[in-house]
Amino acid sequence: MMNERLKLAKNLLKNDGVIFVSIDDNEQAYLKVLMDEIFGEENFVTNFIWQKKSGGGLNKLIYEGHEYILCYSKNNYNFCLSEKNKKMRSEEHTSELQ
Length: 98
What we know:
It is built from 3 helices and 3 strands. The chain has helices at residues 2-12, 28-39, 83-97, and strands at residues 18-23, 44-51, 66-73. The longest helix has 15 residues, at 83-97. The model has no long low-confidence stretch (mean pLDDT 80).
């Protein structure tokens, strides 16, 4: 079921779009493999770790108060975090065409 939804999400993204998917520790590794397959390893942007709450919870030895947020771009070439990167990529593309 997650596979079909991620494929649909990819098709709905613009070429310079990104997707953020939040998941807990139990399924994070599987999701990374699945998203690499669907979006391509080259389109992996980063893996954020989000702290949900403070404190150690019931177990003082292991902290489980976080989730993972995987970020992928639809097309890594079109994805830019800043205007400076967009300008650099545009210049690279122009020089490649010459």
